[in-house]
Amino acid sequence: MDVGARLAELVAIPSVSGDEKWLAERLAAILLDGGVSVAQDGRNVFARRGDGPPSLLLNSHIDTVPPVDGWTSYPWNPRVEGDRLIGLGANDAKASVASMLEAFLTAPLPPAGTILFAATCDEETGGEGLEKLAPQLTFDAAVLGEPNDFGVAVAQKGLVKLKVTARGRSGHAARPHLAQNAIEQAARDVVALGGMSFGTSDPFLGEPTVAVTMIKGGLRSNVIPDVCELTVDARTIHAFDNDRMVAAVKAAVSSDVEVLSARLKPVAGDPGWTVARAALEAAPGRRVTGFPSVSDLAHLTGRPAIVFGPGTPEESHKADESISLASLSEAPEIYRRLIAAYFRLEGTA
User: Which of 168, 178, 197, 302 is the most buried (most CB within 10 A)?
Assistant: First the structure.
């Protein structure tokens, strides 16, 4: 099937995180029709071709975020306008799934070596996807399909989520001098967080970042609030990791700091990895870069792995999400070239 038609088929099957069962079963059927053995683990599907080392994993996620406001048509009714296919998940990341699937089924096998394909769930939320499946799979290198216009991303920022709680003393708004306004204290902390500097950067990711993304405080217009909560999103790099970020935020603010999540660590890769060099061969003109958001690459620390896929980050998680049909049409061949180059560079082709 043409990759555009395949993508349209995948988009038409809703698969918001937690509800990927039907899409996983459809992918399993496609793989069986393609003559390969298939295994399923929960809402994950994986298959293999070939035998022996080295082994290369092609992986992307089948879940999507829920549709946001602003869609001009039913999000799961794929449609083509001009050169773009529109639909929820078309860009993030079902274009990668469809393209990897095509490449996996059609790429010539090397004399020695194994190609693995895994379509996994829960990337958008964490839980039962590649994070759970990766320890069960044996592979020497991995390619993760995410929309980055086939940049060869060897690094990725980590993620720290924090709750900063300012505590004051309530009182009547007519007598603010007799109270302690938690919102004012939180405001000072917002300014302090905005002024943080880190003194280091990553060549592929830039500097760490800190952003206050939510504020909750106040009960009534005539009551001085005694509590105000800030939600903080911090992105880390290998040279300024999650532990250092937590310590730096605690030092910057005057309020209580609670770590909500710090399990997604930064990833520092090597442009000299065989899989990275193979990707550069497969997509001439692209360069080694980093992936500024969070992907399942975080679960492959310690193994050569890159983020490498069709589409653009700007189209993810937006109304009328879309992907260029021109870029989509070349994607399976780029993955096929990567597979061939990887095994050649490993000396098995």
Answer: 168
